[in-house]
Amino acid sequence: MEKFAKELTGKLALVTGGTKGIGRAIADRLLEAGATVVVTARNHPGDENLKSYFIPTDLTIPSETDKVVREINKKFGTIDILVNNMGGSTSPSGGFAALTDEHWENDLQLNLQSSIRIDRAILPQMVEQKGGVIIHISSLSGILPLYESLGAYAVAKAALNNYSKSLSKEFTPRGIRVAAVSPGMVKTDTMGAYLQSLSDTSGRSVEEVTQDLMTSLGGVPMGRMALPEEIAELVGFLVSPRASYITGVNYIIDGGANPSF
């Protein structure tokens, strides 16, 4: 693997939602591969060890998108790699009846529309340079929805999967590879807070609700959650020259939970 150590040298990468969890692990992985990495998030994590260039922004606000891209272009040049990692849900549990128009709109903005906007801002420069890679971080929920607690989020991620495929069909002939990555349960602070909230509302232990969640996915043969670094390793490969023939796919990385191929 030593010959691949700096395979992204000279490449400029943008990782949205890149200051913690999966996004942070991806940013660190691309840095290790030699890329210059810019990360965005709504707030700075206050981590002095953050090695990527940070731009505070809320990409659910349309005007913020062009501002971010202009700053990156001015400071670093054109973007070669885009990893759309922003996402999440603040919608309540309780199934369909618990969701208002605002809940649906918030989840669609964060998990779908924000990716579409940043793609729209960056694709022209990728087309001009006749190359680039776009990775959309989706979720197993987009394939196996958990209606009780993540209904709107799951619908948004399913739409992101379809959009990612559509984008790949249109832009791969122009030299731009597009793929999606759908993690299952990943051991992040956000997942920990989510499991704690389920524990608090149900009166059951975190261990019990974690097992229930794994069971609701059909069981996780690996018997554990993924580590953020394991997701990042897949993304690191997909954006590299070694994946030059890979486009238009959705990689499920879930410890074997998905019952289909």
TrEMBL record:
Gene3D superfamilies in UniProt: NAD(P)-binding Rossmann-like Domain
Answer yes or no on keyword Isomerase.
Answer: no
Query: Ubl conjugation as a keyword?
Result: no
Q: Which PROSITE patterns match?
A: ADH_SHORT
Mind listing the UniProt keywords for this protein, alphabetically? Oxidoreductase
Q: Determine the domain of life of the protein's source.
A: Bacteria
Q: Which family does it belong to?
A: Belongs to the short-chain dehydrogenases/reductases (SDR) family.
| Protein's UniProt name | SDR family oxidoreductase
User: What is the species listed in this Swiss-Prot or TrEMBL entry?
Assistant: Olivibacter oleidegradans
